[in-house]
Amino acid sequence: MLPSSVATFFPVFLMQSSGGSGGGGLFGLFLPLILIFAVFYFFIYRPQQKRQQEHEDMIESLEQGDKIVTVGGIHGTIQMIEDDSVLAQVDSKGTKLRFDKDSISRMQGEDEE
Questions:
Q1: What is the DSSP string of 45-109?
Q2: Backbone angles phi, psi at 75, to 5 degrees
Q3: DSSP 3-state assignment of 39?
Q4: pLDDT in tens, 10-68
Q5: Quick check: 67 and 107 in contact, CB under 8 A?
Q6: Which of these, 32, 27, 31, lies nearest to 16 by C-alpha position?
Q7: Which of 24, 64, 80, 95 could form a disulfide with 87 if both were Cys (CB 3.0 to 4.6 A apart)?
């Protein structure tokens, strides 16, 4: 028998012995595994899907003249948008670079909002 302070933290069905009928013991055996999957889904998988969807929406909403920051940290202004890439001016001298749309991490004005 567990001390009363420990017994208050454990549900009764988890403390059943395995020598009995086995119905509640089987559920108690799989409950931690089910809880681990639930925690993984709600704290890791769903938020990642939400961030990925927000990034895809941001990529689709890009327009000419938007200020962007790439995953490499290059800041620029979009000059032209194509299917899979953008042409961005990266300095005041007119230097232009072409980036894949997937390499754009954020729009520059997002962190000020």
A1: IHHHHHHHHHHHHHHHT--TT-EEEETT--EEEEEEE-SSEEEEE-STT--EEEEEGGGEEEEGG
A2: -95, 140
A3: helix
A4: 555 555 555 555 456 788 889 999 999 999 999 999 999 999 999 999 999 999 999 99
A5: yes
A6: 27
A7: 80
Tokens for 50, please give them.
């939400």
Which structure tokens are listed for 68? 């962007």
Sequence letter at residue 62: L
Q: Which residue has the tokens 């940290």?
A: 73
What lies within 8 Å, CB to CB, of 41 at 6+ separation is: none
Architecture of the domain delimited by 63-112: Roll (2.30)
What pTM was estimated for this model as a whole?
0.63
